[in-house]
């Protein structure tokens, strides 16, 4: 990028990043081979420590709600309340207050609620898989990256033979039979029935990385909304309600959140070691790839304690330098193999490789080697440029619509 002369540290940064280019290599199964140039040796230890691309289901971070947490209930209680595959039932009903007109409802009282074998029967014809990063609206660290499998929600909607007055679907999971613990999300019917901009469908999800969805991950069945933050993908699903309500009624709206905001792109660091004066410093990180895709990850080092121009809060005039986005991994990890990916949306059915890289709604790793710095204290920042050219945190910089703040990391260089 061009470096405006008005930037306070423009000359310093030109000197610092004179040698900051980085190539590609095969390291730790995370970087693809195939004619790529060698990485600087300083990066090898940091790359070896990167986690696998896909997260093992047991290692997902968890932000579940409930007292007690539903996945920690005793096994006999789980069977009693329908939190096992054998006892799970899904009620699909009209909204009592704003009813859609349906030809059929599915209820426990009538013995018609959808059970797990019926869901799998639908899956014989309609099951889909897609890769998605699970992330929370107000947390700056993804909870995990996986391949999710299930039945498009619309297939169940059509089973109700809807006739009219259907504008929104809301849904909830098991909440300990306590109305105060009810957690609900909702979607406009148009999003359920049609997948815009090549998005995967909203699904009733029952597998993660090819394994049955565990109770901790929301099993037997959870909602999974591809482009959304985690609060839309409600766990321990028990009810789908078809409504003529004209507006959202999500529980998360009560906390002043933007409940319709899709995933944003942002970057963060993973390894930022201190350094010795005039010695290269290897840095690694990850980026969340939102609905607008990812074009670049960039970094910028600035002397600590120096003020930045007050009329540039997002550092748009800073002399950012490109980092290297790591390419398609040789080994995916998380129990995910090539055969599974050959049957996954967004992957080539013959090779199992992604059709687009970086993939939207996913994560990617990046790396850079900072050239030698003088002894002192610095601040390292990183940011994304999405596929449309928007620099983080734009175009949606507001916290309640999803985390996207530019990370600032302390960097100490000693003599």
Describe what you observe in this structure.
It is a single chain. With 415 residues, the chain is an alpha+beta fold. The protein folds into 2 domains: 10-54 and 264-414, Immunoglobulin-like, CATH 2.60.40; 73-255, Alpha-Beta Complex (Sulfite Oxidase, Chain A, domain 2). It has helices at 10-16, 44-48, 75-81, 116-126, 153-159, 189-193, 338-341, and strands at 89-94, 101-102, 114-115, 128-134, 144-152, 162-164, 168-173, 184-188, 203-208, 211-212, 222-224, 237-243, 266-271, 275-276, 281-289, 296-303, 321-322, 324-325, 362-370, 376-385, 407-414. The strands form 5 sheets. It has a 5-stranded mixed beta sheet. Strands 4, 5, 9, 10 and 11 form a 5-stranded antiparallel beta sheet that branches. The longest helix has 11 residues, at 116-126. The two termini are 31 Å apart. The model is unreliable at 1-37 (pLDDT under 50).
């Amino acid at each position: 990028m061009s470096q405006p002369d008005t930037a306070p540290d423009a000359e310093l940064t030109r000197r610092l990043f004179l040698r900051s280019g980085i190539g590609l290599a095969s390291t730790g199964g995370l970087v693809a081979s195939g004619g790529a140039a060698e990485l600087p040796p300083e990066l090898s230890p940091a790359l070896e420590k990167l986690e696998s691309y896909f997260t093992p289901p047991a290692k997902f971070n968890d932000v579940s709600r409930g007292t007690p947490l539903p996945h920690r209930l005793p096994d006999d209680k789980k069977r009693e309340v329908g939190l096992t595959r054998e006892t799970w039932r899904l009620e699909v009903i009209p909204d009592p207050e704003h009813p859609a007109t349906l030809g059929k409802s599915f209820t426990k009282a009538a013995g018609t609620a959808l059970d797990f074998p019926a869901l799998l029967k639908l899956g014989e014809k309609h099951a889909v898989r897609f890769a998605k990063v699970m992330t929370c609206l107000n947390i700056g660290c993804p909870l995990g990256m996986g391949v999710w499998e299930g039945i498009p929600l619309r297939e169940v909607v059509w089973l109700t033979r809807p006739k009219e007055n259907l504008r929104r679907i809301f849904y909830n999971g098991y909440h300990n039979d306590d109305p105060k613990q009810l957690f609900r999300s909702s979607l406009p019917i148009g999003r359920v029935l049609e997948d815009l901009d090549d998005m995967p469908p909203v699904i009733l999800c029952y597998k993660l990385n090819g394994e049955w969805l565990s109770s901790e991950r929301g099993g037997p069945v959870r909602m999974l909304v591809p482009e959304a933050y985690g609060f839309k993908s409600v766990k321990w699903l028990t009810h789908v309600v078809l409504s003529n309500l004209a507006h959202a009624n999500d529980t998360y709206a009560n906390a002043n959140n933007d409940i319709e905001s899709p995933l944003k792109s942002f970057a963060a660091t993973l390894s930022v070691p201190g350094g010795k004066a005039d010695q290269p410093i290897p840095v690694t990180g990850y980026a969340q790839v939102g609905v607008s895709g990812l074009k670049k990850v960039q970094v910028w080092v600035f002397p600590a304690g120096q003020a930045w121009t007050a009329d540039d809060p997002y550092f748009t005039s800073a002399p950012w330098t490109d980092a290297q986005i790591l390419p398609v991994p040789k080994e995916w990890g998380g129990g995910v193999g090539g055969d599974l990916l050959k049957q996954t949306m967004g992957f080539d059915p013959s090779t199992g490789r992604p059709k687009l890289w970086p993939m939207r709604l996913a994560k990617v790793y990046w790396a850079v080697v900072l050239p030698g710095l003088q002894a002192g204290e610095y601040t390292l920042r990183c940011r994304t440029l999405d596929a449309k050219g928007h620099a983080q945190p734009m175009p949606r910089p507001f916290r309640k619509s999803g985390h996207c703040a530019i990370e600032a990391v302390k960097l100490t260089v000693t003599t």
